[in-house]
Structure formats: structure tokens, C-alpha cells
Amino acid sequence: MRFVGSDPAALDSKLSQPYMPRANLAVSTESPNGTTAHGWAEQHKGLSTLEQHVLFFDPDRDGVIWPLDTFRGFYRMGYHAFWCAIAVLIIHSGFSYPTGSSWIPDPLFRITVPQIHRAKHGSDTGTYDSEGRFIPAKFEAIFAKYDKAGKGGLTWTEGLYMIRGNRNIMDPIGWLAAFFEWLATYLLIWPADGIVTKESMRTVYDVRS
User: What is 154-174 written as a DSSP string?
Assistant: First the structure.
């Protein structure tokens, strides 16, 4: 299947140094300064983009996300309690140990925000690097490859093609994580026309609250 969309060769003319990771900004050709509404980018410049991505689930800003924080966060976003519980099970069972500071697993399954980059999984888009930084070119590539007809977003099916295209060999955890993230994103945005827009997806990366 052939995908058409934005021209990656034109990135340099639309965005300065698109292949350079941004430590604390989720930028795109349409939003070169990241999320500026309500001073978000300025207020959170001390956090990596990946830390900003999970900040919504740390309401007291103590750098620790408890399972109950995740449950409440998903519930606030409108998910049914059943899906909130599933999210807690998936997220904390997978992310607690990698983000911890001890070889001994945390019996309370807490997630440490400053070390969230350790929980980066495979078979993803590569938009976050291993240090939790945002790579604009990787984000733009999502739409260049999978946004058929250049409509400015992805349908549910195109998102599935994206997951399939990003799969690494023998990485079932990464495959499932990528599917869970796309499902959660689509349900959260629930676009009336069936298209998750590029800007909507960009703001998910820094999760402005």
C-alpha cells in the first residue's frame, strides 16, 4: 500500500533543525514553538517532553505516580471505570520497575516521573528518544507515511497500519503497548469525523492539562 502525505524533504524549510531532539517541546511544522497556550511550554521547560506527557497523572507534582493517580486520571478524561482499571494494570505492571531506583520491585507499583524515559518501549514511532526528548522529524513522518490524501490526521485504520509498520521483530510487549496507546488516544479524542488530527495528536505528546 502506498501512503501519501506531507513531504518530508520540505521539513527544513518549515521547521528549524527538524531532526534535532527537543528536550522540552513537542513541536511540529504548524506549532514550531510547542504548546504555548496558557504558558504551558514556559511553565514546564524544566521537564522533558516525556515527563510532560505523564504529568497529568501526577496531580500533586511530587514526581511519583501511584496506581490510584492513574485510575483517577483516566476517569477524569472520561474513561469507564473498567478501562481505568485495565489502564492501571497495564501501565503500572510495565512501567513501575523500569522507572524505579532499586533492583527490588516496588510492591506498591509506583512510577517515578524523572525516570520515565527508562520505560520507553520498542515498536513505537520513535518520536520520543531514549532520553524522553521529542524528535519533530519522527512525528512528521507519521503523517507523511500514513495520512492518506494529506487530510491532516489519521483514521483508526491508518493508525493500525502505523502500528504494523513500526513493529520490531519478537517484541510482543512493544506491539501491545503501541496498540494500547493508539486505542487510548483514539477513545480520548473520539473525533466526530473519524480523523485524529495532527494537532490533537501533538498535544497528546506533551499533554497540556
Answer: E-HHHHHHHHHHTPPTT-HHH
